[in-house]
Structure formats: structure tokens, C-alpha cells
Specification:
The protein is of the alpha+beta class and 358 residues long. 23% of the residues lie in helices and 27% in strands. It is globular, with a radius of gyration of 21 Å. The protein binds 2-OXO-4-methylpentanoic acid.
């Protein structure tokens, strides 16, 4: 399938933000987007890059009522040599297809979408920020579009990709965030949709997040939905705790997102010979370690968040400081190493980075 390209008229081009320090996250969108349609007769068809514009949707369209949607988040980087790099993007597309299966949506041809994604990024090359720590964020999305109010899976779908320049996800930047361990609410349960990257999981997190924010915390750390005891994730990132010499992250048991950055950190730590475990970790063990002084560091991992150190966490009426409220040495080393690979400053021994402008 060839991808049709309709370029935006020069007079309609938007100004590209000039100050990378002011980018924030998810506020700016470029001049073009990619669209692809699905219906049962033609399956996926009509791939096209068109000027960025509002979508026209029937008010009865199913995604607006029952949330049949999956998405991804990934980034393109302006390398130190001027090259354009993508990081593990094929893993994101494969995960999107796994999410689609879970949400009863049709899977797409990953080669076609990979090609569209590269083409869109190169067309929008001027939008990729030059500052390290900033990137072009890529948001593929798929929605059910039938105008129908019965509860069933949609039969027609729209796949699209939008892109825009971003800086750090959290206002703190690469500085320790504070997290609120929720004992009241849960994000997902095993057997549910927690491991799919779908809107419902994020909707489920909003109330707890609002409460946490009111109390002065950046994010919520979710515990398991049954015992409210085991660490799950932070909604926008997976979590690692360093207790003694062991780095621990929750296993992929179905209710947390299988993060690409989580997987990268596991691989890097193993390559460095660091002791690392994917195991169930009770919040009581974290609290006990904090009290004993053996909780060395805690950090989140995610595409948007990269490595996000945790400076303190609140649990059942008490706040615990981590690494003296500062960025721990392992968080710092991981952050620098991952960025060095993504921006082409260091060789990529893992084969994660693809330069797409050659
Ligand atoms: C990402 O890390 O890219 C995410 O999708 C998390 C969040 C911004 C929804």
C-alpha cells in the first residue's frame, strides 16, 4: 500500500516553538498527521498523510461511549550528529497490536505503520527539538468509529498518528518527584485491561491523581487491586526500588503496562552486572527498608518520563524520604546512559536505536 501525502499549504504552517525550555509535554502538535481506515470489507485501507486538523466523528461513534481505544507513546530524537533517531519503535507498534487484540480491535500491518511513522517524522523533521532531554513525541491512536449505541465491539476503526515537540513530562524535569501511595483506589485488576495501553486505565487513574495533587504529590503509586499491598505502577511509568544492592520491579502479571523503558532498564542493569529482580514487592517491605535506611533509591521509567527519581512517598499518613530527597546515583547513571544512546552520543550495544534519515 502506498501512502498518499497531502502537504499543508505554506500559508497554513504553524510556528514551531522556539524555546525548548518552555515546551512542557503534550501541548504542541505539528502540521501533519497520518490516517488509516478500517472496515470489514476493505480491512485496513487508504493510508495517508494529511494536514493536521480536527477529526470529524459521529456523536454516536462507539469510542466516545464505550472507550474502545488503544494508543502508544514514543519519541524521535535529534542526535548530536544531526541525525534523526527512533528508539525501539517496533516494540511500541508490537505492543499496540497486543493492546488492540485485548480490546477486540483489528491488528494492523506493523511494517506499513512503521513506514508511515518514519515518513511523518521526516516530513516534520523541523519540529524535532535540538535540546537534549527534548524530543518529538509520537502518539499513534486507534479508535472504534461505528455510530452505534449497543455494547459490542465496533466494526470500523480509525488509526492515526500525531506528533509534537515535548520537554520533560513532569514540571520537576529530571528532579525527584513525590508520590502518593493510594490505599483507597486501584487502577486495574488482574484479568482486566491493565496491561493494555488503553484510555480506560488512564481514566481510572484520574480521581486518585486529583486527590494526590491536592495533597501536594506529583503522581499516584498504585497497589494491587485485591490485597492493596503489592506495588503495581505509577500510571505514567513503571517503578523500580533499590533496596540494599537489589533493584526490584514488579513482574508483568497482567495488571501493569509492559513498559519499553522498563524492559530497557532491566537489560541495562543486567549488562552492568547489577542485581535485579522482577518480583512482587509489598509496600510494607518498602516502608520497612525506608525506616531501616536500606531503601537506597526509587525511580520510575517510561517514554514520557524517561527515568524519574522519587524523592519521597506518602503512605498511610506518613511521608518517607528516599535518597535524601535527591536524585540517586543509579537513577542518574541510567538517565545519562539512556539519553546518550537515544541522542547518538554513545554506541548502542543493544540495537535499540534506528537512524531514519539516511
Ligand atoms: C508515555 O510514556 O509515552 C505514555 O504514554 C504515558 C503517558 C504520557 C500517558
Amino acid at each position: 500500500m502506498s501512502i498518499q501525502v497531502t502537504r499543508v499549504d505554506e500559508s497554513q504552517r504553524k510556528p514551531i516553538p522556539s524555546d525548548d525550555a518552555q515546551l512542557g509535554f503534550g501541548r504542541h502538535f505539528s502540521d501533519h498527521m497520518f490516517l488509516l481506515d478500517y472496515n470489514p470489507q476493505q480491512e485496513w485501507h487508504h493510508p495517508r498523510i494529511v494536514p493536521y486538523a480536527p477529526l470529524s466523528l459521529d456523536p454516536a461513534c462507539m469510542v466516545l461511549h464505550y472507550g474502545q481505544e488503544v494508543f502508544e507513546g514514543l519519541k524521535a530524537y535529534h542526535g548530536v550528529d544531526g541525525g534523526v533517531r527512533l528508539f525501539r519503535y517496533r516494540d511500541n507498534l508490537a505492543r499496540m497490536n497486543r493492546s488492540a487484540r485485548r480490546m477486540c480491535m483489528p491488528t494492523f500491518d506493523e511494517e506499513l505503520v512503521a513506514q508511515a511513522l518514519r515518513q511523518l517524522v521526516l516530513l516534520e523533521r523541523a519540529w524535532i527539538p535540538r535540546t537534549e532531554g527534548c524530543a518529538l513525541y509520537i502518539r499513534p491512536n486507534m479508535i472504534g468509529t461505528d455510530p452505534f449505541l449497543g455494547v459490542r465491539s465496533a466494526s470500523s476503526f480509525l488509526f492515526y498518528i500525531i506528533v509534537g515537540p515535548v520537554g520533560a513530562y513532569y514540571p520537576e524535569g529530571f528532579n525527584p518527584v513525590s508520590i502518593y501511595v493510594s490505599s483507597e483506589h486501584v487502577r486495574a485488576v488482574r484479568g482486566g485491561i491493565g496491561e493494555a495501553k488503553t484510555a480506560g486505565n488512564y481514566a481510572a487513574s484520574l480521581y486518585g491523581q486529583m486527590e494526590a495533587k491536592k495533597k501536594g504529590y506529583t503522581q499516584v503509586l498504585w497497589l494491587d487491586g485485591i490485597e492493596h499491598r503489592y506495588i503495581e505502577e505509577v500510571g505514567t511509568m513503571n517503578m523500580f526500588f533499590v533496596i540494599g544492592d537489589e533493584a526490584i520491579t514488579s513482574p508483568l502479571t497482567g495488571s501493569i503496562l509492559p513498559g519499553v523503558t522498563r524492559d530497557s532498564v532491566l537489560a541495562i542493569l543486567k549488562a552492568w552486572g547489577h542485581k535485579v529482580s522482577e518480583r512482587q514487592l509489598a509496600i510494607d517491605e518498602v516502608v520497612a527498608a525506608a525506616e531501616k535506611g536500606t531503601l537506597r533509591e526509587a525511580f520510575g521509567t517510561g517514554t514520557a518520563a524517561v527515568i524519574s527519581p522519587v524523592g519521597n512517598f506518602f503512605h498511610k499518613g506518613k511521608t518517607y524520604r528516599v535518597a535524601d530527597g535527591k536524585t540517586g546515583p543509579l537513577s542518574q547513571k541510567l538517565y545519562e546512559h539512556i539519553l546518550a544512546i537515544q541522542y547518538g552520543k554513545e554506541p548502542d550495544p543493544y540495537g535499540w536505536v534506528e537512524r531514519i534519515d539516511l
